[in-house]
Write a structure and sequence with these properties.
The complex is a heterodimer of chains A (634) and B (288). Chain A is built from 23 helices and 18 strands. With 634 residues, chain A is an alpha+beta fold. The longest helix of chain A is centred in the C-terminal third of the chain and has 57 residues. At the A-B interface, helix 5, helix 6, helix 7, helix 19 and helix 20 of A face helix 1 and helix 2 of B.
């Protein structure tokens, strides 16, 4: 039977911790596979099962590979690679036998902790990640080492100045292509188009989308974050324009930006910018813009990044830019006779464009429409059903319908998807937008300019007044009942929401710090603060040396006493012509056997030596022992 | 030099560096830089760990070729702010560093002087000069191995191997060959070999009895070439003689050796024994 090395409990727990960090980010099936491997190992160590042979674990590796390929069709890419890595770590634990396996597991642990940082850089995860990181270093130290934590602390202290220096000074190498190595299938809703129910599906999640700080805080009602612009209409379903007309957006230096955004990974290629944004810049990211003034990356963005944006100084006249856009913005899907009749009735009134818009506004505002997350299922061509019968919908229904009706009245219109509003953090002076703020609205071309029209505001003004977070926090009945109100008292902030707001602020600052320290920031930071950095660095190094030397003095003083004790024993042995080439305890025993030391004296000296050697403490009887041995010399 | 594990760590750091650069992730940069810094600190500590250790002296008791002996190594620690050295492996190598004679592991040198017994096996008899004590360690992280050579200034004398038949068997054969006439029985005392017991007589007398031969009381043994004439090669002869000399001393006999150019007086005692063994050990190898 081959020897099995039992995994130290603490190492096992640390590895499980590291795996749990990543298990949160991958598909449940892979986490389950890994969990079963861990469970098997635990049971085998406790005698409830047998250890698996290498052949069997080899076979399970192939099973893991097959699972990964089945799910993702490839091993290349973030999710397939890390899922496979997680399962391999589980199998390695199953296979654990030798000291070499222990080291391999620790290495895998380091990789898992680093992989977690690819998925999230939130401050909430920093504690567990750092704990895991240092716990893995702890297990690299020899098992027999006494006071391992103390030694690890010394090692960390020694490494800290160099690590900080590398972090500050090491040139940031950025590979722009790597940021865009993402899953090419974006999430339905924003990247692919607008389907009935797609935005209401997004709204049910609370995932963070972006956090923004402004030079001058705008009004909440004006916070329309534009993502994709849709022109192709199939009734209630709209197609994204994709790459049509997209050109690289010149990445020139911005004058002091008007606002700064940290956008999180929500699997869309779009950068969400405000209405009148003219320029956008993100470090290491190739941005494309199109005549519709939407900004996007090459493919769906799978990591946090920061960008700065500048608004237009004056409203520019886009009419002269693209006639083709206007023509596309007038294309109508097939309409039912009832809708055509409705449109004809308005057209026959020979109203101006503004008046036609007002008519549409009135139709939606007074038409007993209900704003709800659960309007029932609509097919693409059920526009008539929505407009005249059910009258229940979400923002995607209202905006799709409004745009079609506007086009039917000869006004170019397009649907815009993105987010609206956000929650203001008073501590950090920033806005937080999450998936609940997902929204769709319309832009109509009136008076030679594209203007925003939000039919949802006409139907449910309260949602804009109090924000999506609070509005969807109401019950469904209250949402319907109070939707048309302009004001509602929500209630006082609790201690938990206060704490949540404060931690959000800390997390935002932390994220900004990590994202902000890019190549440009590094250069300017170093050039402006070189003297200060050198001064602080020197002080830090001196402090480390002082701390370590003071702990060395403590070691040395203890050692001197032990050395003195051993020297005295040596001299007594030498005095009586005894063999000095024996262990100290053996020499003391010999002195006792020869009658030079009494039994009591022997026990006292042995105790004193043990205190020094094993307890590393000063024996209280040290002076007495010293006196005894000195007497034997005389 | 890096260990295999150290190389694996370096590759891991490199891979993580590319992750960090590729995804412009400052958090991974931080992990990478910290791992780099810890590795470099570990390398420094590994170096200091070995540098602290100095050979003070060593002693080797009676050492026979091919048998395990205990080499007592005394080490001194230099005055260093790090405190004690840990996890040192000591190895005894030949002067040309091609043959390893033994190793010992010390986990923690707790005092400024430290001694440790090291089991060594020196394969051949003779004088060993310039043996090298290699101290090595990969403490604390196992990324790098550092080592230091400490040359042993003193010579080490290795006696021939203890091999062959026992002195008692040899003397028994001599008596069978008429070299000793049975005189009487004596009672078995502690220290006598059980092979000397006369079982027939013992069963009759119901106590253990040993045969005594004429001349046995003389307690004198003279070993010569004729005693080992039957052996083929020089080393076997020397080994046999070594064994007999040692047993003769243990049995309190007076003995002498007449072999090759060695013509010793009859004597006994540790000094006499070691002198004879040294003579055997230093015999040229090509002698008959």
């Amino acid at each position: 039977m081959k020897a099995q090395l039992r995994i130290e409990v603490s190492l096992f727990l640390v590895l499980v911790f590291a795996m749990v960090l990543v298990a949160f980010e991958v598909h449940f099936a892979f986490s389950l596979f890994t969990g079963l491997c861990l469970l098997w190992r635990l049971l085998a160590e406790r005698g409830y099962g047998s250890f698996l042979s290498k052949r069997l674990t080899g076979f399970l590796s192939l099973v893991a590979l097959a699972m990964t390929l089945l799910f993702y069709r490839t091993l290349v890419g973030q999710e397939p690679a890390y899922s496979f890595l997680l399962m391999l770590t589980g199998l390695k634990i199953l296979d654990f036998e030798t000291e070499r396996d222990k080291k391999i597991l620790i290495l895998l642990g380091f990789i898992l902790v680093a992989v977690k940082a690819l998925f999230t850089i939130d401050i909430y995860w920093i504690g567990p990640m750092v704990f895991c990181f240092f716990a893995l270093w702890y297990h690299l130290l020899p098992q027999k080492l006494a006071k391992k934590w103390k030694y690890l602390f010394t090692l960390i202290l020694m490494s800290m100045p160099l690590a900080l220096a590398l972090f500050v000074f090491f040139p940031r190498v950025v590979l722009p292509w790597a940021l865009n190595q993402a899953n090419l299938q974006g999430e339905i809703g924003f990247s692919e188009g607008l389907n009935p129910g797609s935005i209401s599906g997004l709204v049910e999640r609370n995932q963070l989308v972006l956090q923004a700080t402004f030079k001058n805080n705008p009004k909440p009602l004006d916070l329309y974050w534009r993502g994709g612009v849709l022109y192709e209409s199939l009734g209630l379903r709209w197609q994204a324009e994709g790459w049509r007309g997209a050109t690289p957006h010149a990445a020139e230096e911005l004058a002091p930006s008007d606002y700064e955004v940290v956008q999180f990974a929500i699997e869309t290629p779009y950068l969400f910018v405000l209405d009148d944004t003219e320029k956008v810049k993100a470090e290491g990211l190739l941005i494309f813009s199109n005549p519709s003034r939407s900004f996007r990356a090459r493919s769906a963005l799978r990591r946090e990044f920061k960008f700065n944006a500048q608004k237009m100084n004056e409203k520019s006249d886009l009419v002269s830019v693209n006639q083709e856009l206007l023509e596309r913005a007038l294309q109508l899907p097939p309409l039912t006779p009832k809708i055509e009749t409705f449109l004809q009735n308005i057209t026959q009134e020979n109203l101006s464009e503004q008046a036609k818009i007002k008519k549409l506004d009135l139709f939606f505002a007074s038409g007993d429409f209900v704003y709800t997350l659960n309007p029932g299922v609509y097919r693409d061509n059920q526009l008539e059903d929505f407009l005249f019968e059910r009258k229940k919908g979400f923002c995607e229904h209202f905006s799709a319908a409004y745009a079609i009706l506007a086009r039917g009245l000869g006004i170019p219109a397009r649907v815009v998807t993105g987010f609206h509003g956000g929650v203001y953090n008073t501590y950090g002076n920033f806005w937080t937008v999450n998936q609940r703020d997902a929204h769709a609205w319309v832009e109509v071309f009136v008076d030679n300019e594209w203007r925003r029209k939000d039919p949802t505001q006409l139907v449910a003004p309260l949602r804009f007044e109090i924000g999506a977070e609070d509005f969807f926090g109401l019950s469904e009945e209250d949402q319907v009942r109070f939707a048309k109100l302009n004001r509602l008292e929500i209630g006082n902030e609790s201690i938990f929401s206060f704490l949540a707001t404060y931690f959000d602020h800390l997390n935002y600052r932390w994220t900004l710090f990590l994202l902000e320290y890019d190549r440009n920031t590094q250069r300017s930071f170093i050039s402006q603060n070189l003297t200060r950095i050198l001064g602080i660095g020197l002080c830090l190094v001196l402090a480390v040396i002082l701390v370590l030397r003071s702990s060395r003095m403590k070691f040395w003083n203890q050692d001197r006493e032990l050395q003195e004790l051993l020297d005295l024993i040596n001299r007594v042995c030498s005095r009586h012509n005894l063999d000095q080439e024996r262990a100290p305890h053996a020499r003391v025993r010999q002195l006792n056997e020869l009658g030079i030391l009494t039994e009591g004296e022997k026990k006292l000296i042995d105790r004193g030596m043990d205190d020094k050697l094993y307890l590393k403490s000063r024996s209280s009887e040290f002076e007495q022992i010293r006196k005894i041995l000195k007497d034997k010399l005389n | 030099m890096p260990t295999y594990f150290g190389i694996a760590v370096a590759v891991t750091i490199l891979v993580l560096f590319f992750f960090a650069a590729g995804y412009a992730n400052n958090l991974i940069f931080f992990f990478v830089f910290f791992m780099t810094a810890m590795s470099m600190s570990g390398a420094y500590l590994t170096n200091r760990n070995i540098k602290n250790v100095k050979l003070s002296k060593f002693s080797l008791g009676s050492c026979y070729a091919g048998s395990e002996s205990q080499l007592l190594v005394y080490l001194e620690m230099n005055n260093d702010w790090l405190g004690f050295s840990h996890d040192i492996t000591l190895e005894l190598w030949s002067a040309d560093l091609k043959t390893n004679y033994g190793a010992a592991q010390i986990f923690e040198l707790q005092t400024s002087t430290y001694f440790t017994p090291m089991p060594v096996v020196l394969p051949e008899r003779g004088v060993y000069l310039g043996l090298v004590l290699k101290s090595k360690s990969d403490f604390p992280l196992g990324f790098l191995t550092a080592w230091k050579y400490l040359r042993l200034e003193e010579r080490i004398l290795v006696y021939p191997a203890l091999k062959g038949k026992s002195l008692y068997d040899h003397l028994q054969e001599q008596s069978r060959d008429g070299q000793g006439v049975f005189k009487e029985h004596r009672e078995f005392v502690f220290g006598d070999s059980y092979r000397q017991v006369d079982w027939k007589a013992s069963s009759r007398a119901r106590r253990f009895l040993i045969k005594k031969h004429e001349g046995e009381n003389n307690q004198t043994l003279i070993l010569s070439e004729s005693d080992v004439y039957h052996l083929d090669d020089l080393e076997s002869k020397l080994s046999q003689l070594t064994l007999w000399l040692k047993e003769a001393e243990q049995q309190n006999l007076s003995y002498a050796l007449h072999f090759a150019h060695i013509k010793s007086e009859v004597s006994r005692g540790q000094e006499h024994l070691h002198a004879l063994l040294e003579s055997l050990a230093t015999l040229p190898k090509e002698n008959i």
